[in-house]
Request: fold
Amino acid sequence: MTDTNRVLIFDTTLRDGEQSPGATMSHAEKLEIAHMLDEMGVDVIEAGFPIASEGDFAAVSEIARQAQHSVICGLARAQIPDIDRAWDAIRHAKRPRIHTFIGTSPLHRAIPNLTMDEMADRIHETVTHARNLCDNVQWSPMDATRTEHDYLCRVVEIAIRAGATTINIPDTVGYTAPKESAELIRMLLERVPGADKVIFATHCHNDLGMATANSLAAVEAGARQIECTINGLGERAGNTALEEVVMALKVRHDIMPFSTGVDTTKIMGISRRVSQVSGFPVQFNKAIVGKNAFLHESGIHQDGVLKNVETFEIMKPADIGLNEANIAMGKHSGRAALRSKLNDLGFEVGDNQLKDVFVRFKALADRKKEVYDDDLVALMQDSAANTDSDYLQVKSLRVVCGGGEPATATLTMVVGEEEKTVEKQGDGPVDAAFNSVNALFSHQATLQLYQVHAVTEGTDAQATVSVRLEEDGRIATGQAADTDTILASVKAYVGALNRLRVRREKSAPDSDVRQVGMYSV
Ligand code: KIV
Ligand code: ZN
Reply:
């Protein structure tokens, strides 16, 4: 295998993924995810969109200062102030990159109302400006897959001449199909002068469920950078999932002889963490990282797997950092065993966090005979999502229901500094409990999603609950786990309210580009 078969992995979880409604992450969470991406061998981390808000700028700057290996990239529209702001955020990185873009398809050209010639001039001007600041510049013709081929060739050539070192070809609306994705890259490589001097990238969205296939087809045609996100996080149906393209290239190396620099054993740990901090649960049957991805439930499958794992398994759970031995822990397990188990599951816990998690673990082990890996993952998600420093904290909940009477919930909650108790009725236990929260903390948010999953089997299983709330166009999700489903529901609801509150306080409308349209140029 030669170096020309090395495919760069460009992760945009912190930019395109975080842009997904409801997936907003805190500053500390962004730093943590960036650290994990840097450690796992991702080549380029798109850390954010610095001009979008003060928060984005601060996170990108800090990630740029801390990253040890990866190139750190900041996004900018085709405007000089955007590019300057991106450069200010990334300039301290060991390996900085400016990524600037403009929508080139007829529909996108109509937004800024630029003629083809005016847009071409703007591309020349902005890429030149970026290249004068940074010697690593990526340029993207947004909605490339719906751009006229002649015009696409023209603007790609202009960007290359102006100094772009990577040309990214986005399928912004998830419209293309594998054959077309490959043909587009091949066409550009053949027709554009200077195309052999730059790296072509593929950036796919999953609206038709073809993002992974489209990305791999582009690589076969000559693209050498795949843009993707952990768990396929992203707007609408999401982006290409990092774990899918990386594992496809590893498992089917026989027919796709390309390599990446990703340490695949870190996949499971980062997948769980991204799910936690974004509040987006991973669907059970999601390729590679879904809870069921390595489960063999049917008799025929189990029998086959026991005789020879290769009968039904094309990769080993350990390849993605999934520990095969799901050894139960119990109330006699000590701190060291818990720490080692959490490490196996991809969680690195410091001494203080271990203390807190250990208390929660003991409480769970008292209620549940055996604590399985999935219980521990849920417990970690719960302790990350709901902390003692939150503005709203659930202290106790008692619900009485049944017997033909309306359900009644008595809730004690800390609101700011004050501990308050209330009793409210509702149409069922969850409704009564949520009504009590609303009585103690008034808000305008509406419930968009309420989802309950059992973590393991048995009636003593923990429930993980996800709640999504919307208020004035802001979306926040909350997650919680408990053997008491109603308590988990209230904690998830309160968690989402805490996040909404933080978001409300942080967003300064005049500095938030997303409110005036990320795609306005
Ligand atoms: O999907 C898209 O076109 C993008 C660009 C900003 C690269 O995310
Ligand atoms: Zn995108």
About this structure: The chain is about 40% helix and 20% strand. The chain has a mean pLDDT of 90.
